[in-house]
Records
---
Amino acid sequence: MRALQTAATGMLAQELNVQVISNNIANVRTTGYKRQTVHFQDLLYENFRRAGSASSDSTQVPAGTFVGSGVKTVSTGRIMSQGNLSSTEKQYDVAIRGEGFFRIRMPDGRTTYTRDGSFDLDAQGQLVNRDGYQIEPGITIPNNATNVNINAQGTVEVLLPGQTAPQQLGQLQLVRFVNKVGLESIGDNLFVETAASGQPIDGVGGGEGFGTLQQNYLEEGNVQAVTELSSLIAAQRAYEMNSKVITAADQMLSATSAIFRG
């Protein structure tokens, strides 16, 4: 019976939906995390009678007879909306308010991108992320520097002993993408570009199309716990309804078998 296979596709789709929701909930406190959502499409239809086809008396039927074969998952896109900014009181923490990503240089030479601005210094005084990967362009803070300041445009200034005016060390740059939803997640709060995302567009904080930077703050994940729990309940009910269809189809098959046995 076709209903068994159709309902099975629905159960598989909702199983994936629950997995995505559970990942969102698990990352509710992850810095810079962007929640995922699942998109579905219906599968192919079998046409028993096409709309507009001729009937026996040479008239056209107003509606056809179509039977679908289930559902498929077409994408698990990310919602790239702004998360709330939370104060950390750490001088190397930087949040992006608006559009843009930080550029991170990986040990293998690849360039990745992140919204996680929880930075620190390595043994050489270079500005790195929590995994020790260098920020691009590289910025080195002298070990005797005081009053490190990062303004809204990303300019890094420090005060050195014996000097009254701050010294500029460099500038944090931002990149944006035409289709940021097309970025590929690789874990560790990092993204890589794809053919769908397009080439990175360089800029600075406050530039056209770019957000501004906020020192001593981090961007929280944009997961809304209440929304995810509501989606979880809806996914669970959809799974149960598909399982009921399988049970009903099985009972119908059993009744048919009983007739033949009788």
Note: Residues 225-261 form the longest helix (37 residues).
---
Amino acid sequence: MKKILFIVTLLVAIISHAQQNASPYEWNWVKDGIWLGAGLGGSAYGLMLIQDKEGLTLEELNSLKKEDISGINRWAAGYNSESASAISDIPFAISFAAPFALLLNDGINDHTGQFIGMYFESLATTAALFTITAGLVDKSRPYVYDETLDTDRRISNNGQRSFYSGHVAASATATFYAAKVYSDFNPDAEGKFFVWAAAAAVPATVGYFRIKAGQHFLTDVLIGYGLGAATGILVPELHKTKDASLRISPTAGRNFLGDEYTGVAMSYKF
């Protein structure tokens, strides 16, 4: 009887350990290779569109009026701050490094290749969406409405890339990806609220300073934030294994007859 109990206990320990180290995601080299390649290709195409983008003519510049801007955005027209632009780069850089901090987690570290692959996939998807949109859509940045600025800067093609904020989109992708992966690997971890709060705060900070810098209007930031966050969450979610909600854990207790038992419990979260 003792031998049987020992074997059962050993099996429970092995299964429990395997469950803790199992990844909730799966990686398919063919499908994910195509996805990543499409993202990189789309990004390259978008960069070509941006490079060939035309700026404003003097006539078009002189015809710009703040009154023509929607009320939700009008207040930012004319904003221009190089210091705010420089400050925005700090949380922007931090957001890209944030996911790599998760490699300190033993469970995630056991699947480093998969983790990095999905991260690059997320960023490539965001980059493709942003660059193509920025290359096709003409919208003057807030600083273009600053009449004290040098005319050459105001009419340059860079001034026509207000829609939407690529900085915010990329930052949100990185931080929400980190929060999503951490939550999936550690579903029962305490303090997940603070992880998600930090994920939300960093790109919001980037967006605030991008507006103060005169680079984007509020709606540009909000759209970039939404698309970036959605990508950071959905890419890992689409990689979830079919049995990601299946949980196996050791269990022990006493049945209704009063007999003690030891075994393995299985649960499935819908």
Note: Confidence is low (pLDDT under 50) at residues 1-20, 244-250, 264-268.
